[in-house]
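Entry, Tuesday afternoon. Goal for today is a structural model of the target with pyridoxal-5'-phosphate bound, before we commit to ordering more compound. Inputs were pasted exactly as handed over by J.K., no edits. I checked the ligand SMILES twice against the vendor sheet because last time a stereocentre got dropped in transcription.
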Amino acid sequence: MDSHHQEEEHHKENGDSITHNNNNNNNDNHAPKKPKLSQWITESEIRQEFSHHDPRIARINNGSFGSCPRSVLSAQTEWQLRFLRQPDAFYFNHLQKGILESRKLIKDLINADDVEEVSIVDNATTATAIVLQQIGWAYTEGRFQKGDSTVMLHYAYGAVKKSIQAYVSRAGGQVIEVHLPFPVNSNEEIIVEFRKALEKGKSNGGKVRLAVIDHITSMPSVVIPVKDLVKICREEGVDQVFVDAAHAIGNVHLDMKEIGADFYTSNLHKWFFCPPSIAFLYCRKSPLPSDLHHPVVSHEYGNGLAVESAWIGTRDYSSQLVVPSVLEFINRFEGGIEGIMERNHKAVVEMGEMLAKAWGTHLGSPSSMCPSMAMVGLPPCLGISREADCARLRVHLRDNFGIEVPIYFQETIEEGELKGEACISGYARISHQVYNTLDDYCRFRDAINQLVKDGFTCQLLYSN
Ligand SMILES: Cc1ncc(COP(=O)(O)O)c(C=O)c1O
């Protein structure tokens, strides 16, 4: 039975057990009327919560922009109305309390030591700017030397690479990329390459001032052994470690004390059901660099990053205030966020394997390195030979088949080419979130099979 069917069965089972429990209660005159604590969300309630999704689209791309249920959107509207009803009272009496409440909940979710370590910002991009800005100042103020370096993964997110260029390279810092293999078979392959990059940074007496490590790379999507890499950074004397975990909260288990990074950011609008946009930036309290500031300077400048970030001028803060409502939504699922993550992971691997089998390809990593996303090889006969082909194929799938899925271009592997084998040069990044159904993936499977049957190649996408 595939996990979707299992999920349906599971919801039915829970539905049955509610009726059963209620019947028991009704029959037992001594039992006080209990709230329906065992009533997990049903399949039809999930459909209602996401009924604003375009029904024509098989949306197997939660990874890019996340999703937000209706109950949370209603809570957000309520906050917006509270603001507009009496703006002065809201700004001066309620806003800060609300943001602090969200920070406290996030602190517990990520096992930080202290709420002071948790700031709420717009998104991972903003968090990155906060971390890199103080690195840039260290160069310009002479605390770091021109040859000192920043190590980052080759698969770092494009916008993060641009930030490193803007804040670090421009200030005179060297940047060293860790070249990672893909397809990837084990954590060890990543660890070996990471060590090589650190050695390079330390050669000729250089210092590695910053390591930027993804927890889950975006494209291709792979869970990185972040705890091991942070430990290596400590052993090798790297000054600061920043984990870009834009995809992590609600996708993989998080524990700030276990991971041990100096800075860690994750978007809550990707896998944690918040509306856009909200991210947390965790900054380890000890030793906390004193030079951390929000890039948008306002009244609270100098009062600590968390306080600065909670007041960056007049704007809509509602997405930062709905964290308690998001948790209410999440707790309607068996096992809360851990249960959701476990089922999503299992389902995405199952769907990925189903697609790979149908297309005669393979997954880009072992299942243990997949979060709630998986990279699935596309048939080589589609003729994907450059980045632009992936972008066009994605649009083709959206416009002609109603499928939303990002495609990754992989330079083909020489070994296979030498043997005269066709190599997989394109991988689809599929996601699984609570609203997805088996039909979403079957539609994708059938669309690709149809293209193959029709003799389609990406060259045809350039004919008009
Ligand atoms: C790895 C990674 N880092 C950073 C970001 C930036 O996130 P945002 O656009 O919400 O700032 C993304 C977005 O997809 C990402 O995948």
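The chain has three domains: 1-40, 75-326, 337-462.
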